[in-house]
Amino acid sequence: SGNFVIKNAQWRDDVSKRFHDALCFEMEAAGIMQDTQALVIRGISDYADPHKSSHWQDCATGAAVAFARELL
C-alpha cells in the first residue's frame, strides 16, 4: 500500500515491473496501517489509468463483501 493514487498507465506499468509484475495496487490504506494493525480487503474497480469510471465500483464492492463474509 502507498500514499498515492495512480492515474497514469505508464507509471502504473513501471511500478508493476519494479514489483515483479504486480497485478494490483492498494493506494489508500497506508495511512491507517501506520497506526493500526488491520487486514485490508478491497475490490478492484479500475485499471488505474485515465479511463477510470465508477461503472465497476458496485461490482468491486460486492466482490470485497463476498470475500470478507467467506473469510469470517
TrEMBL record:
GO biological process terms, semicolon-separated: nucleoside metabolic process
Source taxon at top rank: Eukaryota
InterPro entries from the UniProt entry: NLR-like (IPR053137), Nucleoside_phosphorylase_sf (IPR035994)
MF (Gene Ontology): catalytic activity
Signal peptide coordinates: none
Protein name, entry field: Purine and uridine phosphorylase
Organism, scientific name: Zopfia rhizophila CBS 207.26
